[in-house]
Amino acid sequence: MTGAPEGSQGGQGSQGSRAGQSGRAGQGGQAGQGGPARPGRLGVGVVGAGRVGAVLANALRAVGHPVVAASGISAASRDRVDALLPGVPLLEVPAVVERAELVLLTVPDDALEPLVAGLASVGAWQPGQIVVHTSGRYGTGVLAPARAAGAIPLAVHPAMTFTGTSLDLARLEGCCFAVTGPGPVLPIGQALVVELGGEPVVLAEEVRPLYHAALAHGANHLVVLVAQAAQALAAAGVEQPGRMLTPLLTAALDGALRAEDGQVAHAGQGAIAGLTGPVARGDVGTVREHLAVLTELAAREGAFDVPGTYRALARAGTQRALAAGRLREDAAQALLDALADPAPPPDRTPPPDPPARPAPPDPPDPSEPPAPGSPEEPA
User: Fold this and answer.
1) Where do the domains of the chain lie?
2) How far apart are CA 307 and CA 303, in angstroms?
3) What is the Cα gyration radius of the chain?
C-alpha cells in the first residue's frame, strides 16, 4: 500500500480512494514466519505528539510508514516533533485526521472519549481509516463514533514507560503490546506491533480496566516504594540512597519476575516463593521495631505515608506467604496482630460548654393589679 509522501499534501484525494487503500491494510503484505502479514504502507497522522505519540510515529516511519502530520499544543510536544519527526507538519487535529490513513490517538485517557466524539461531530472520520488509540484503560468501545463512520478501531497499548526521546526506540524491541479490536481486524493491530519490534498480546474488551490496573499497581506503586525507601535511608544518614538501593531492588525485582515467567495457573505464587526478610521469617520483633522507627520518621520528616504503606504491604506479604505454605498459621497471626492499624488517639477535645439556661422571669409586682384572665385574678 502506498501512503501520501511525507510532508506533502498527499492524502487529499476522495474519501472513497482513501477507504479503498486503508481497507486493504494487513492484506497483500508479506507474511512473517507464522506471524501476521505486514501491512501496506500507511500515511500516519499523530494526534497528541507527547512522549508516546512521537516515539511510536518515529518507529513506524523507520519501517516505511510516512508520517503525514502531527498535532501538539505544548512547547514540549513541538520540540519532540522537531527532534523525532523532522519535517512533519504540525496541524490542527481535524487536518491531521483528514490527511491520515492510520490515525494514532496518543492523548490522556480522560481526553480520549470527548476527542473521538468531537471529531465525529465534525465529520472527520473516514470509511476504511484505521484509528488506533494507545490508552491502556480503554478497549475499542471508546472509538464507537469513529467506527460508526466506517473507520477501523484498534486499541494498542505498549506496556512500558516512555521518556519521549530516542532512548525509547530500542526499548520497543520485545515490549508487550495489549491489542484489542474486532476479530476480523485484529491482524492489522498485531502486524503493526510486530513492525514496531514488539510482541502483540490480544486482550478482550472487558478485561482492559483490570489489565491497566495491574500495570499501574505494579509500576507506579513501585516508584512510590523506591521514593519512600530512599527517604528513609537519607534520614538514616545514607548520602546516596539510590546507589545503595540499586543492587538490592534490582535483584529482588529480577528474581520475582523470573519466578513469574510462564506462570498462568499459579500466577503470583512464584514471586512469593522468593520472598525474603522479616515477614518471610516470621520475625515479629523486627517488624515491630520497623513500625516504631518508621512512625518516628513520619513525625520527624513528615513522611506520614510510610508507616501505612509498610503495614499494608507487610500484611499482604504475610497473607500470601501463609497461603503459599511459607509461614505457619500461628506465626502469620502474630505478624498480623503486630501489623494491625494502631488505635486512633483518644479524643482530648474538651466537651462544649452546656447551653446557658434562660434566666427565670421576674416575679410579678404585687403593687400592680393582675391582668384580666390571669391565674392571679380572683374568680
Assistant:
1) 15-203, 210-259+270-338
2) 8
3) 32
Among 213-222, 317-326, 367-376, where is mean pLDDT lowest? 367-376
Across 275-301, average pLDDT: 96
What's this model's pTM, rounded to 2 decimal places?
0.77
The grid coordinates listed for 367 are: 403593687
200 and 221 Cβ atoms separated by less than 8 Å: no
Of residues 73 and 235, more confidence is placed in 235
* Grid cell for residue 79: 520540540
Gap between the Cα atoms of 153 and 304, Å rounded: 45
Write b or e for each residue in 234-259: b if 16 or more Cβ atoms lie within 10 A of its Cβ, otherwise e. Answer: ebeeeeebeeebeeeeeebeebeeeb
* Range from 76-90, 154-168, 213-227, 353-367 carrying the lowest mean pLDDT: 353-367
The count of residues in the chain is 379
pLDDT on residue 39:
61
Superfamily in which the 15-203 domain is placed by CATH = NAD(P)-binding Rossmann-like Domain (3.40.50.720)
pLDDT of residue 119: 98
Show the cell assigned to 287: 517488624
Q: What are phi and psi of 290, to 5 degrees?
A: -55, -45
Query: If you average pLDDT over each of 5-9, 69-73, 154-158, 367-371, which comes out highest?
Result: 154-158
- The upper half-sphere exposure of residue 226, i.e. CA atoms within 13 Å in the direction of its Cβ, equals 17
User: What's at 313, amino acid-wise?
Assistant: L
